[in-house]
Design a protein that fits this description.
By secondary structure, the chain is mainly α. It has one domain. It has nine helices and no strands. The two termini are about 20 Å apart. The mean pLDDT is about 90.
């Protein structure tokens, strides 16, 4: 997903949308972890909507160039969470759920603002919806180190989870293959997300 042919205004919209999406995503991880008993994210200042606390420069650049990326991971101690593995699933799911909530809320703002807002503002709003849907969908893939992996891991027997975790380091290679191989199913997923963005915004 390359954006080199976009105008400066549209690129600014993408950058702002990316900051909003990652910030809410990572803050939600930290907030739920804190509520479930792990207070380390709070001590590290991660329960915050300050983007500086959550953005990873490399992850942001890759997201703009390739359509996938990451923020600065929130450190979570599963042994401090209530109730254990289910708590970890709740923490993991919090990020994508936050992105979905932001997408819906901003789509409503887009519809209300469309008759009178300048093009730049509408670009920012539209890309904020798109990127939050992308972040939610991509992170729900059950592949390590994505959130979907930690959600799925909580619902398999402990022995099976232990076996699966042995292969977690290879998850990044699987993701790279999915993203860059021609004919990857992710291309269709990203297409559906573009359609969902148009439906939500009416644009």
């Amino acid at each position: 997903m390359l954006f080199l042919d976009l105008s400066l205004a549209q690129f600014a919209g993408i950058a702002i949308a990316l900051v909003v999406g990652i910030t809410f995503h990572e803050c939600s991880h930290a907030l739920v972890a804190d509520q479930l008993g792990d207070h380390r994210p709070r001590a590290l200042g991660r329960i915050s909507l300050n983007p500086i606390n959550h953005l990873d420069p490399v992850g942001a650049i890759v997201f703009v160039l390739a359509g996938f990326g990451w923020g600065k991971p929130v450190p979570v101690n599963v042994y401090a969470l209530r109730p254990g593995r289910i708590g970890m699933a709740a923490v993991a799911a919090a990020g994508p759920i936050a992105n979905l909530a932001v997408a819906v809320a901003v789509a409503l703002i887009y519809r209300l603002a469309e008759p009178f807002a300048p093009g730049l503002v509408l670009d920012v709003l539209w890309f904020t919806v798109l990127y939050n849907l992308l972040l939610a969908a991509f992170n729900l893939l059950p592949i390590p180190p994505l959130d979907g992996y930690n959600v799925a891991l909580a619902f398999v027997p402990p022995k099976t989870a232990f076996t699966i975790q042995r292969y977690a380091p290879y998850g990044v290679l699987v993701l790279l293959l999915l993203v860059f191989l021609p004919g990857s199913p992710l291309g269709a997923v990203f297409g559906w997300i573009g359609g969902a963005t148009r439906i939500l915004t009416g644009a």
